Amino acid sequence: MKECEDMGFEVGGLFPATGADTIMAVKFGGETAGSLDPAAVSDAIRSADSVPVLTVDSISFKDTKTYAQRTIPVIGYKDGKRVLITNDIPANVPTDWN
What we know:
Radius of gyration: 16 Å
Helix content: 25-40%
Mean pLDDT: 85
Strand content: 15-25%
């Protein structure tokens, strides 16, 4: 996001960053598959243990196949300053849609 701001693009928060995550995941899939074939890119993304992205260290589609499992930061305030309370994958997120 800092790089975008340095280039003169307004960055409105997390929404643009999650768009960057999508682009990074597709780039990862193409590089890993060694192909731009959509099925090969999808397979590479869905089978990876870890896909590097912008908003968190990595995401994974390996268990869910349809949505990214990722840590979710919970932010709170202490002494008037933002603090990180937790940054874990929620335990109650379904991993199988069957």
